[in-house]
Amino acid sequence: MRPPWKLQSSTFGGSSKVLVRFEEDLVLLKPPGSRDGDGDGDDGDDGDDGDDGDDGDGAAPWGEDREGTGPLPAPGGDIPPPSVSSLAGVAISTYAKYCYNKLQKAALTGAKKGLKKPNIEEIRHAKNAVFSPSMFGSSLQDIVAMQKERYPERQLPWVQTRLSEEVLALNGDQTEGIFRVPGDIDEVNALKLQVDQWKIPTGLEDPHVPASLLKLWYRELEEPLIPHDFYERCISHYENAEAAVAVVHALPRINRMVLCYLIRFLQVFVQPANVAVTKMDVNNLAMVMAPNCLRCRSDDPRVIFENTRKEMSFIRVLIQHLDTSFMEGVL
Protein backbone atom coordinates (compact mmCIF):
# COMPACT_ATOMS: atom_id res chain seq x y z
CA MET A 1 0.00 0.00 0.00
CA ARG A 2 1.38 3.40 -0.94
CA PRO A 3 1.98 5.80 1.95
CA PRO A 4 -0.40 8.78 2.28
CA TRP A 5 2.49 11.16 1.72
CA LYS A 6 4.79 11.69 -1.23
CA LEU A 7 8.30 12.97 -1.74
CA GLN A 8 9.33 14.29 -5.12
CA SER A 9 12.74 15.51 -6.29
CA SER A 10 13.04 18.20 -8.92
CA THR A 11 15.85 20.22 -10.42
CA PHE A 12 15.44 23.94 -11.02
CA GLY A 13 18.37 25.83 -12.54
CA GLY A 14 20.89 23.27 -11.34
CA SER A 15 19.72 23.10 -7.70
CA SER A 16 18.10 20.09 -6.12
CA LYS A 17 14.85 20.68 -4.25
CA VAL A 18 12.40 18.29 -2.66
CA LEU A 19 8.63 18.62 -2.35
CA VAL A 20 6.97 16.71 0.46
CA ARG A 21 3.20 16.44 0.14
CA PHE A 22 1.41 15.52 3.33
CA GLU A 23 -2.20 16.23 4.32
CA GLU A 24 -2.59 18.82 1.55
CA ASP A 25 0.52 20.63 2.83
CA LEU A 26 3.23 21.21 0.24
CA VAL A 27 6.61 21.64 1.89
CA LEU A 28 9.58 22.87 -0.10
CA LEU A 29 12.87 21.54 1.24
CA LYS A 30 16.42 22.07 0.01
CA PRO A 31 19.55 20.12 0.88
CA PRO A 32 22.13 22.10 2.86
CA GLY A 33 24.51 24.06 0.69
CA SER A 34 22.29 23.80 -2.38
CA ARG A 35 21.77 26.73 -4.69
CA ASP A 36 18.31 28.23 -5.00
CA GLY A 37 18.45 28.31 -8.77
CA ASP A 38 18.25 32.08 -9.19
CA GLY A 39 21.79 32.27 -10.49
CA ASP A 40 23.10 34.66 -7.83
CA GLY A 41 25.36 32.08 -6.23
CA ASP A 42 24.09 32.56 -2.68
CA ASP A 43 23.19 29.81 -0.25
CA GLY A 44 19.43 29.99 -0.75
CA ASP A 45 18.46 32.38 2.05
CA ASP A 46 17.46 35.18 -0.35
CA GLY A 47 19.86 37.47 1.43
CA ASP A 48 17.79 37.88 4.55
CA ASP A 49 20.15 37.04 7.41
CA GLY A 50 22.54 34.38 6.21
CA ASP A 51 20.61 31.60 7.86
CA ASP A 52 20.58 27.94 6.98
CA GLY A 53 18.65 28.11 3.76
CA ASP A 54 15.13 28.80 4.92
CA ASP A 55 13.84 31.09 2.17
CA GLY A 56 10.99 32.40 4.26
CA ASP A 57 8.29 30.14 2.89
CA GLY A 58 7.80 28.39 6.21
CA ALA A 59 9.60 25.18 5.23
CA ALA A 60 11.95 23.61 7.71
CA PRO A 61 15.63 23.38 6.67
CA TRP A 62 16.95 20.04 5.56
CA GLY A 63 17.29 17.49 8.34
CA GLU A 64 15.28 19.42 10.92
CA ASP A 65 12.01 18.35 12.47
CA ARG A 66 8.81 19.79 10.96
CA GLU A 67 5.73 19.66 13.17
CA GLY A 68 6.72 16.43 14.83
CA THR A 69 7.30 14.43 11.66
CA GLY A 70 10.86 13.57 12.67
CA PRO A 71 14.16 14.43 11.00
CA LEU A 72 14.21 14.23 7.24
CA PRO A 73 16.78 12.02 5.52
CA ALA A 74 19.69 13.14 3.45
CA PRO A 75 19.10 13.04 -0.31
CA GLY A 76 18.93 9.49 -1.55
CA GLY A 77 18.27 8.03 1.90
CA ASP A 78 15.27 6.04 3.08
CA ILE A 79 12.11 8.09 3.59
CA PRO A 80 10.56 7.66 7.04
CA PRO A 81 6.77 7.85 7.33
CA PRO A 82 5.35 10.87 9.17
CA SER A 83 4.57 10.29 12.82
CA VAL A 84 1.03 9.49 13.92
CA SER A 85 1.04 12.56 16.15
CA SER A 86 0.86 14.83 13.11
CA LEU A 87 -2.48 13.20 12.23
CA ALA A 88 -4.06 13.95 15.59
CA GLY A 89 -4.71 10.23 16.06
CA VAL A 90 -6.57 9.74 12.77
CA ALA A 91 -5.09 7.43 10.17
CA ILE A 92 -5.32 8.77 6.64
CA SER A 93 -6.44 5.29 5.60
CA THR A 94 -9.70 6.08 7.41
CA TYR A 95 -10.35 8.93 4.99
CA ALA A 96 -9.04 6.92 2.05
CA LYS A 97 -11.35 3.96 2.63
CA TYR A 98 -14.37 6.22 3.08
CA CYS A 99 -13.61 8.20 -0.08
CA TYR A 100 -12.88 5.03 -2.03
CA ASN A 101 -16.26 3.55 -1.10
CA LYS A 102 -18.02 6.79 -2.01
CA LEU A 103 -16.23 6.95 -5.37
CA GLN A 104 -17.18 3.36 -6.13
CA LYS A 105 -20.84 4.13 -5.45
CA ALA A 106 -20.72 7.37 -7.43
CA ALA A 107 -19.21 5.50 -10.38
CA LEU A 108 -22.18 3.12 -10.36
CA THR A 109 -25.04 5.47 -9.53
CA GLY A 110 -23.74 8.90 -10.51
CA ALA A 111 -23.41 11.90 -8.24
CA LYS A 112 -26.57 12.63 -6.26
CA LYS A 113 -26.26 16.35 -6.95
CA GLY A 114 -25.12 16.09 -10.55
CA LEU A 115 -22.77 18.97 -11.35
CA LYS A 116 -24.01 21.12 -8.48
CA LYS A 117 -21.30 22.00 -5.99
CA PRO A 118 -21.81 20.97 -2.35
CA ASN A 119 -22.46 23.73 0.15
CA ILE A 120 -20.54 24.26 3.39
CA GLU A 121 -23.09 22.38 5.49
CA GLU A 122 -22.92 19.36 3.19
CA ILE A 123 -19.11 19.37 3.34
CA ARG A 124 -19.20 19.55 7.14
CA HIS A 125 -21.70 16.69 7.23
CA ALA A 126 -19.50 14.61 4.93
CA LYS A 127 -16.44 15.18 7.13
CA ASN A 128 -18.32 14.08 10.24
CA ALA A 129 -19.76 11.07 8.43
CA VAL A 130 -16.26 9.61 8.12
CA PHE A 131 -16.22 8.96 11.87
CA SER A 132 -19.90 8.98 12.82
CA PRO A 133 -21.91 7.70 9.85
CA SER A 134 -25.37 9.20 9.69
CA MET A 135 -28.48 7.13 9.16
CA PHE A 136 -29.59 9.89 6.79
CA GLY A 137 -28.07 9.85 3.32
CA SER A 138 -26.64 6.34 3.67
CA SER A 139 -27.62 3.21 1.78
CA LEU A 140 -30.02 0.69 3.27
CA GLN A 141 -27.20 -1.85 3.39
CA ASP A 142 -24.96 0.54 5.34
CA ILE A 143 -27.76 1.47 7.74
CA VAL A 144 -28.45 -2.18 8.54
CA ALA A 145 -24.71 -2.73 9.03
CA MET A 146 -24.56 0.24 11.44
CA GLN A 147 -27.22 -1.24 13.70
CA LYS A 148 -25.91 -4.81 13.58
CA GLU A 149 -24.07 -4.53 16.87
CA ARG A 150 -26.91 -2.78 18.71
CA TYR A 151 -29.79 -4.71 17.17
CA PRO A 152 -28.45 -7.94 15.66
CA GLU A 153 -31.93 -9.47 15.29
CA ARG A 154 -33.56 -6.57 13.47
CA GLN A 155 -34.46 -7.09 9.82
CA LEU A 156 -35.57 -3.49 9.25
CA PRO A 157 -33.76 -0.20 9.87
CA TRP A 158 -34.27 0.96 13.45
CA VAL A 159 -34.76 4.55 12.28
CA GLN A 160 -37.64 3.55 10.01
CA THR A 161 -39.57 1.51 12.55
CA ARG A 162 -39.01 3.86 15.51
CA LEU A 163 -40.10 6.99 13.65
CA SER A 164 -43.12 5.16 12.25
CA GLU A 165 -44.08 3.98 15.72
CA GLU A 166 -43.62 7.49 17.08
CA VAL A 167 -46.00 8.94 14.48
CA LEU A 168 -48.70 6.49 15.56
CA ALA A 169 -47.92 6.94 19.27
CA LEU A 170 -48.59 10.67 18.87
CA ASN A 171 -51.93 9.91 17.16
CA GLY A 172 -50.68 10.81 13.72
CA ASP A 173 -53.42 8.67 12.22
CA GLN A 174 -55.90 11.10 13.80
CA THR A 175 -54.06 14.30 12.84
CA GLU A 176 -55.28 16.43 9.97
CA GLY A 177 -52.77 16.84 7.15
CA ILE A 178 -50.35 14.20 8.43
CA PHE A 179 -47.41 13.82 5.99
CA ARG A 180 -48.63 16.90 4.12
CA VAL A 181 -48.19 19.53 6.84
CA PRO A 182 -44.47 19.95 7.65
CA GLY A 183 -43.19 19.81 11.20
CA ASP A 184 -41.37 22.74 12.77
CA ILE A 185 -37.97 22.83 11.07
CA ASP A 186 -36.02 23.40 14.29
CA GLU A 187 -37.77 20.52 16.02
CA VAL A 188 -37.22 18.27 13.02
CA ASN A 189 -33.49 19.08 12.94
CA ALA A 190 -33.20 18.56 16.71
CA LEU A 191 -34.92 15.19 16.40
CA LYS A 192 -32.62 14.24 13.54
CA LEU A 193 -29.57 14.83 15.74
CA GLN A 194 -31.12 12.69 18.48
CA VAL A 195 -32.01 9.88 16.09
CA ASP A 196 -28.45 9.81 14.77
CA GLN A 197 -27.45 9.08 18.37
CA TRP A 198 -29.98 6.22 18.53
CA LYS A 199 -32.35 8.18 20.75
CA ILE A 200 -36.01 9.18 20.52
CA PRO A 201 -36.77 12.00 22.98
CA THR A 202 -39.73 11.49 25.27
CA GLY A 203 -41.07 15.04 25.08
CA LEU A 204 -42.41 14.99 21.53
CA GLU A 205 -45.95 16.27 21.15
CA ASP A 206 -46.43 17.09 17.47
CA PRO A 207 -46.76 14.03 15.17
CA HIS A 208 -45.82 16.22 12.20
CA VAL A 209 -42.22 16.31 13.51
CA PRO A 210 -41.45 12.56 13.35
CA ALA A 211 -43.59 12.32 10.19
CA SER A 212 -41.47 14.99 8.47
CA LEU A 213 -38.25 13.32 9.59
CA LEU A 214 -39.47 9.94 8.39
CA LYS A 215 -40.16 11.38 4.94
CA LEU A 216 -36.72 12.99 4.98
CA TRP A 217 -35.08 9.66 5.80
CA TYR A 218 -36.74 7.96 2.83
CA ARG A 219 -35.96 10.88 0.54
CA GLU A 220 -32.28 11.08 1.51
CA LEU A 221 -31.46 7.40 1.06
CA GLU A 222 -28.28 7.11 -0.97
CA GLU A 223 -30.13 5.05 -3.54
CA PRO A 224 -33.92 5.41 -3.77
CA LEU A 225 -36.05 2.88 -1.92
CA ILE A 226 -37.09 1.49 -5.30
CA PRO A 227 -33.70 1.29 -7.07
CA HIS A 228 -33.09 2.99 -10.39
CA ASP A 229 -32.92 -0.38 -12.17
CA PHE A 230 -36.63 -0.90 -11.43
CA TYR A 231 -37.81 2.61 -12.23
CA GLU A 232 -38.91 2.00 -15.82
CA ARG A 233 -40.83 -1.11 -14.80
CA CYS A 234 -42.67 0.89 -12.15
CA ILE A 235 -43.84 3.65 -14.45
CA SER A 236 -44.71 1.10 -17.13
CA HIS A 237 -47.05 -0.79 -14.78
CA TYR A 238 -48.46 2.11 -12.81
CA GLU A 239 -52.04 1.02 -13.43
CA ASN A 240 -51.56 -2.75 -13.46
CA ALA A 241 -51.90 -4.05 -9.90
CA GLU A 242 -50.57 -7.54 -10.63
CA ALA A 243 -47.52 -6.24 -12.49
CA ALA A 244 -46.86 -3.58 -9.85
CA VAL A 245 -46.88 -6.18 -7.08
CA ALA A 246 -44.54 -8.35 -9.16
CA VAL A 247 -42.07 -5.46 -9.31
CA VAL A 248 -42.08 -5.24 -5.51
CA HIS A 249 -41.37 -8.96 -5.13
CA ALA A 250 -38.47 -8.66 -7.58
CA LEU A 251 -36.70 -6.02 -5.48
CA PRO A 252 -33.57 -6.85 -3.45
CA ARG A 253 -34.58 -8.29 -0.07
CA ILE A 254 -33.81 -5.26 2.10
CA ASN A 255 -35.55 -2.89 -0.34
CA ARG A 256 -38.57 -5.19 -0.51
CA MET A 257 -38.83 -5.44 3.28
CA VAL A 258 -38.50 -1.70 3.83
CA LEU A 259 -41.00 -0.87 1.08
CA CYS A 260 -43.54 -3.40 2.33
CA TYR A 261 -43.22 -2.00 5.86
CA LEU A 262 -43.86 1.48 4.49
CA ILE A 263 -46.90 0.36 2.48
CA ARG A 264 -48.32 -1.49 5.49
CA PHE A 265 -47.79 1.66 7.55
CA LEU A 266 -49.62 3.80 4.96
CA GLN A 267 -52.46 1.30 4.79
CA VAL A 268 -53.26 2.26 8.39
CA PHE A 269 -53.88 5.84 7.31
CA VAL A 270 -56.23 5.00 4.43
CA GLN A 271 -58.78 3.40 6.73
CA PRO A 272 -62.04 5.38 6.29
CA ALA A 273 -62.21 6.33 9.97
CA ASN A 274 -58.73 7.86 9.78
CA VAL A 275 -59.22 9.58 6.42
CA ALA A 276 -62.29 11.35 7.81
CA VAL A 277 -60.01 13.12 10.29
CA THR A 278 -56.66 13.41 8.48
CA LYS A 279 -58.13 14.38 5.09
CA MET A 280 -55.31 12.28 3.63
CA ASP A 281 -56.88 9.67 1.37
CA VAL A 282 -54.94 7.20 -0.75
CA ASN A 283 -54.39 9.76 -3.52
CA ASN A 284 -52.97 12.35 -1.15
CA LEU A 285 -50.72 9.83 0.57
CA ALA A 286 -49.44 8.56 -2.77
CA MET A 287 -48.76 12.13 -3.87
CA VAL A 288 -46.59 12.97 -0.84
CA MET A 289 -44.83 9.59 -0.63
CA ALA A 290 -44.04 8.82 -4.28
CA PRO A 291 -41.09 11.28 -4.47
CA ASN A 292 -39.58 9.56 -1.44
CA CYS A 293 -39.67 6.13 -3.08
CA LEU A 294 -38.94 6.78 -6.76
CA ARG A 295 -36.52 9.18 -8.43
CA CYS A 296 -36.72 10.20 -12.05
CA ARG A 297 -33.23 10.65 -13.51
CA SER A 298 -34.32 12.64 -16.55
CA ASP A 299 -33.56 16.36 -16.84
CA ASP A 300 -36.38 16.91 -19.32
CA PRO A 301 -39.21 18.84 -17.58
CA ARG A 302 -41.81 17.16 -19.77
CA VAL A 303 -40.58 13.69 -18.82
CA ILE A 304 -40.43 14.63 -15.14
CA PHE A 305 -43.96 16.03 -15.23
CA GLU A 306 -45.38 12.99 -17.01
CA ASN A 307 -43.54 10.51 -14.80
CA THR A 308 -44.65 12.25 -11.61
CA ARG A 309 -48.22 11.26 -12.35
CA LYS A 310 -47.17 7.66 -13.04
CA GLU A 311 -45.07 7.48 -9.87
CA MET A 312 -48.05 8.60 -7.80
CA SER A 313 -50.29 6.03 -9.49
CA PHE A 314 -47.79 3.25 -8.86
CA ILE A 315 -47.62 3.98 -5.12
CA ARG A 316 -51.41 4.31 -4.96
CA VAL A 317 -51.81 0.87 -6.58
CA LEU A 318 -49.43 -0.63 -4.01
CA ILE A 319 -51.31 0.90 -1.08
CA GLN A 320 -54.56 -0.49 -2.44
CA HIS A 321 -53.43 -3.93 -3.62
CA LEU A 322 -50.15 -5.04 -2.01
CA ASP A 323 -50.67 -7.79 0.57
CA THR A 324 -48.46 -6.83 3.51
CA SER A 325 -49.88 -9.23 6.08
CA PHE A 326 -46.56 -11.11 6.16
CA MET A 327 -44.98 -7.99 7.72
CA GLU A 328 -47.03 -8.37 10.89
CA GLY A 329 -44.66 -8.21 13.85
CA VAL A 330 -41.54 -7.87 11.67
CA LEU A 331 -38.96 -5.40 12.97
TrEMBL record:
<dbReference type="GO" id="GO:0007165">
    <property type="term" value="P:signal transduction"/>
</dbReference>
<feature type="compositionally biased region" description="Acidic residues">
    <location>
        <begin position="39"/>
        <end position="57"/>
    </location>
</feature>
<feature type="compositionally biased region" description="Pro residues">
    <location>
        <begin position="72"/>
        <end position="81"/>
    </location>
</feature>
<feature type="domain" description="Rho-GAP">
    <location>
        <begin position="138"/>
        <end position="326"/>
    </location>
</feature>
<feature type="region of interest" description="Disordered">
    <location>
        <begin position="29"/>
        <end position="81"/>
    </location>
</feature>
<dbReference type="Pfam" id="PF00620">
    <property type="entry name" value="RhoGAP"/>
</dbReference>
<dbReference type="InterPro" id="IPR000198">
    <property type="entry name" value="RhoGAP_dom"/>
</dbReference>
<dbReference type="InterPro" id="IPR008936">
    <property type="entry name" value="Rho_GTPase_activation_prot"/>
</dbReference>
<dbReference type="GO" id="GO:0005096">
    <property type="term" value="F:GTPase activator activity"/>
</dbReference>
<protein>
    <recommendedName>
        <fullName>Rho-GAP domain-containing protein</fullName>
    </recommendedName>
</protein>
<dbReference type="GO" id="GO:0005737">
    <property type="term" value="C:cytoplasm"/>
</dbReference>
